[in-house]
User: Fold this.
Amino acid sequence: QEYTNTETQNPGTVSRPDRGSTEAFPRSYCHKAQESLLSSASGYRNYRGILNWCVVMLVLSNARLFLENLLRYGILVDPIQVISLFLNDPYSWPAACLLIASNVFVLVALYTERQLSKGSFSECFGLVVHVINLATMLTFPAAVVLLVPSMTPVGGAVALGTYTILFLKLYSYKDVNLWCRELSTIKVKKLVRSLSCPLPQLSQGDEHKVCYPGNLTIRGTPTQLLLVSADMYYFVSAPTLCYELNFPRSPSVRMSFLLRRLFEMLFFTQLLVGLIQQVRSHYDMDLSRMTERLLRLAVPNHLLWLMFFYWFFHSSMNFTAELLCFGDRQFYRDWWNSESVTYFWQNWNIPVHKWCLRHFYKPLLRRGFGKMASQSAVFLLSAFFHEYLVSVPLRMFRLWAFTGMMAQLPLAWFVGRFLRGNYGNAAVWMSIIIGQPVAVLMYVHDYYVINYRQETD
Amino acid sequence: QEYTNTETQNPGTVSRPDRGSTEAFPRSYCHKAQESLLSSASGYRNYRGILNWCVVMLVLSNARLFLENLLRYGILVDPIQVISLFLNDPYSWPAACLLIASNVFVLVALYTERQLSKGSFSECFGLVVHVINLATMLTFPAAVVLLVPSMTPVGGAVALGTYTILFLKLYSYKDVNLWCRELSTIKVKKLVRSLSCPLPQLSQGDEHKVCYPGNLTIRGTPTQLLLVSADMYYFVSAPTLCYELNFPRSPSVRMSFLLRRLFEMLFFTQLLVGLIQQVRSHYDMDLSRMTERLLRLAVPNHLLWLMFFYWFFHSSMNFTAELLCFGDRQFYRDWWNSESVTYFWQNWNIPVHKWCLRHFYKPLLRRGFGKMASQSAVFLLSAFFHEYLVSVPLRMFRLWAFTGMMAQLPLAWFVGRFLRGNYGNAAVWMSIIIGQPVAVLMYVHDYYVINYRQETD
Assistant:
């Protein structure tokens, strides 16, 4: 009985009551009751290696393609060439002109807030200026994209995307400054300080904290406007959509981290351009037998999206953040494990999710709307912007993107109602892999019919 | 200062000192310093979703192929057809005859151990019988495979594989019974009981525990031989290579688990057969430009191996274990995360690893060999069996498999010396993805040159 107890306490070792005679004999048993790791009953979750496997497979599958593209096109990001082209003939770069013009809207928002903080503008007049400014940010670039013939769909999409991001940022800027003023008028000074100078874990740098209206008016310095603009432009270039008076900062720029992200950015740019060319040729050929080829296009289309995700949300945003010492690197959460459609939409794009929550969903709740109504309103807003960013650059209004986003609501209900765990996860993956290429195929089909078939018909 | 403390303790909630006036205002900050999940600095490891993604991608990529194969070949595992073919013409099924003949060796081992336990055989004579029995198990099927012309390479490989597994099992059977006898002769009766009736967590069933020589001689029952054979055949069919008098048992057969594993077995059989046909046609065509096509073949070859791994080590072994109520389901550990070659070889095939450790590596250590020498000896043994299982069915001795296994030793040194973490993991994946098809290609090339090129030359 004694030995049995010893075994219980130390199942991994052999009990040796009689060292000289028994040490030579190994334990005659070597099994214990346990589940396989891949069985869901095991509760095992560490698959970091699978991620590395995906990367290795990606590199190997595309090694040849990558080398060919590198040799044919060189390193695509060539800033000198871009600048020289732009300086030679500015009118052939309407998208770039639009991007430069966007500074006007930033400066209008900053000027308005400065006047509001000084009291030169009334709250009501300030709001009107902001609304006009924001409305112009959506309509002006759309009008330019639709009316200027030399605008390409890619250029238009980039310009509209940038304006949309700026729109969300300036909306947040307006909101936060308004909240700070409202708090100071109701004289909760202490709370103001705790709200506008938060994050006690960074308290060693508290002397550098900015309190409202310090972000708009820095008194006693001759370089006042420069510093105020610096605060504004830090926010404009930071990888977030939500304004804050004091962003958490990382202590320094890690050179090796920066270089790795830069390498990834260049590598995935090559890969994306190479793959898009290949996939595009497939789209070109297969217009006649679309539904038949859908499955074949779904996989490369999905891989493109995954690579775009990594390139944009990990490499590029971390690169920018590292450069700006921006501390909050949560640009995505573990959407790959999402077991419901809602979880996916809440976790794959954190900057937009944060903005929606802070400046749209919660304000709606505070105004008395229900949870379901507010959530549907968020999807409606998202559907509008999806449609806006696709329809305007392609110059055709088909509502496929809008419908696709709105279709997420019944899909979310269905998955949440009937599927759980790994099955729910698989359903989310299926909806991503199949849903996207269907929408893309719709637009590509219509675009080709409008732009190319007319001539042959 | 008070609010700052509250924030520290509850960073996720807003402190509300003045409920009526401040509840309407959201926190004006929403960022905190943190790393992205995919950065290795985050320490995040939960990628279960990626595994589901791989499965979904696999199913989608092969959905068409799978359906075609199902329609063309039907469900491949058709036991009635197999049996009827075998009964009609036994000589055209030499592999099946070999499999049936293997029972002789099992019964010889059982008989020898029974005589040894009764004292009818001396230890020395018993050892001689065992050695002859085991040696015949390796040479007899090899001779049959080499000499019978109607033996196909696949049939030969299956027969030799089964004999090799049986060889390892009977070697373990001999060892464990020997250890039990040695322990009882040195009169450590209590230890014997703790060694041959272990696993106190199953103590509620202790009355059913078998103690040596109860596994060989069950006295007082008329069905003695039947029960003894049942113990032996349970071990022969159980998914393990290491004998134990009392295996841990699962409480019951879970029907849904069994059906899911069965479905997986059938599904992967279809997929494997379909893919092998596709890959084989590639191998056929590309003999002229081999090195050029290596990269292209590496990926499907690797996918085949991965599917085989899942089919054999997860679906089939769990199916068998569930059917036999065999409790220990650890057939593999997390080799996908392995950051060194050694870790991979220790974790991808646990039954063989356990056997090598228990019946080869540790006995060598006890005889005074060094760690390095013993480890090299394990790789040498493994290399021998790899070569044996490939060369004999193909009837050509090229030592590629042997060299491939022995090349793991310098590779393990190199990876362990120079690469760490995710880089080590990527290197292990690369060696699996690239190394295997090189060896396969070598054999395929030589096989085609010998069997087909002769005629055309």
